[in-house]
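Model it.
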Amino acid sequence: MSAFLAADTETTLPSEPRLIGTWHLVSFEMQNSTSEPSHPLGQHPQGQIIYDDVGNMSCHLLNPDPPTRPTDATDGADYEARISYTRYASYYGPYEVNVVTRTVHHHVVGALMPGWAGTTVDRDYAFDGDDELTLSAKIEAVDQLAVLKWRRTK
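Modeled.
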């Protein structure tokens, strides 16, 4: 039995059958009630999220349009590391789905951001047909809603 299995086994499952597969990112917005949505990974973000049928997931997000490297950037590798960290995010681990609340729980084992390892990130999910998925999360610290739209990879 998984260490992450919740006590309410009727609603928390290792998977939601329509979730299983590979999805590519269509859009990523941060929304709030007072201004236009922002796009933390640019207007044309790239990404992939994979859910398998035994309860494992992996997520990668990328801003494909890095800023132009300044001509006076003399710190080479340090500059590249800073830019990479701000334009790429990834994490992986087991996941569970609560079909009643329509929430997927990502139990992070490893991540680019070290502070995420050992945490659980919750995403509300909604399907639009079989091939479109929206994952959203309320970010309390900044009073925003992160909305990621995905399309099934075929």
